[in-house]
Amino acid sequence: MTKKYLIGLGILSLLLTSCNEKNKTAKSVEKSKTVTVSLGSKPKSLDPAMYNEIPSLSIVEQIYNTLFQIDSNGNIVPELAESFEYITPTNLVIKIKKGVKFHNGEELKANDVLFSLNRMLQKPATQVMLNTIEKVDVIDDYTVNLKLKEPSAPLLYSLSYPMTAILNEKFTTEKNGNIATDAMGTGAFKYQNWGDGEKIELTTNKDYFGEKAKIDELIFRAIPENTSRLAALETGEIDIATIAPIDVQTVEGSSDLYAVSFSTTSTEYLTLNNLREPFTNKDFRKALSYAIDRQSIVDAVYLGKASIAKSIVNPTVFGSDQTVGTADYNLEKAKEYLEKSQVTNKTIKIMSNDNPIRLQAAQIVQANLKEIGINAEIETVEWGTYLQMTAKGDFDIFIGGWVSGTSDSDIVLFPLLHSSYKGGAGNRANFDNPEYDKLVELGRTSTDSSDRLVAYSKAQEILAEETPIVPLYYKNENMGLNKRIKDFTPMPNTIHNYAAISVQD
């Protein structure tokens, strides 16, 4: 073998090694710029105003912006708005930031805000949040005036929730309003692909008006089963995931992962169909509430990462009163109320979506009710069917949850239980109580914090007495993350900002 040949092999070897190292580096860089998140359920729609459900809004949050946002101290600050001023208690003037671009390159103008707000007032899910708005007027290209029917303390909080995101009028009109699977906003990430909702791909918006994302691509994957989600997290297939309480210890024991567990603004509860026998009977409803051993659910299902709920309003939310609830587990009282109800047909159905955690909780409720002679059958349906059936009132009881996205009691007490929002709009219990209605209306129209607190406390007293729904527990959110993920800040409403994260391989 000649010296020249050996030298040639050496050079070739160096070149190949260099190329391999470059390929490895390129792959590492490529990986580091892509983050994959799994929140479990497949989102129902990417139209912000359609559904108040976390899987959808978690993605909406990345693509769109709202006029306002809530800062880390719970204060309202402008987002798309530049400034705002109440000219009178019922006239709110909002100036819009100049130079904000939609993902199609068009500048955000006042007409887009007008179009978006008017559209929200026609959608049941957002109309309940904004029905205090009587009219929206455009003053100039960057200024709108909101004329209100009455003063509204929660309005700015509602205008900070992802459901009230601002749309591009031209794009939405061209799509005939059908933007469920074709989203386009002003947010830190741009929509790329729906993937049947199983794999939704977003890319960084390099023209974002705010602090730009530190990653290039954000992918959301629907992996409903907890075990599958954990396995994908362990193999590096996904980077961030909601995990079951039982999996927290596994994640903490991994050298490649870490866990985050935090309090939220959510409440898990049973909704009773107040229009269907025997749930029209208040004594029967109270019997159910006293029969449920909530602490058993907290201990067995959540492994202590939850607390007993005394009110439908989470204690972290403005207006919550934790002194009025009847969350005590008391079999004797349960039996007394059941006998007092004189209900003879004691076979009922508990509906749950196919969330393993909720199913476990439903099974404990089922066992509890059996102790007082009530036969509860569990009906499991997939998420979309669950939303449709509960909206139509096609259920006895369903186990569900509600996140107070605005951290104000209004977003809980009004849409969930006000008589004007029966059915799919929010009040799926079909509760109807004039005194309750007046109190939550007062809480929404008063601008005096102390008056609002009194109104909300009295409203919660009525709920404790009438028991149209049965609060169960306030759960923690548990998330597992790959250690390459840095700067993740969890949000109590569980709708996180993934633009703020960075990666370190």
Automatic annotation (TrEMBL):
The secretion signal range is: none
**UniProt superkingdom:** Bacteria
Q: Where is the Solute-binding protein family domain?
A: 75-422
Keywords, in A-Z order: Signal, Transport
Q: Which family does it belong to?
A: Belongs to the bacterial solute-binding protein 5 family.
Name of the protein described by the UniProt record: ABC transporter substrate-binding protein
Organism whose genome encodes this protein: Candidatus Cetobacterium colombiensis
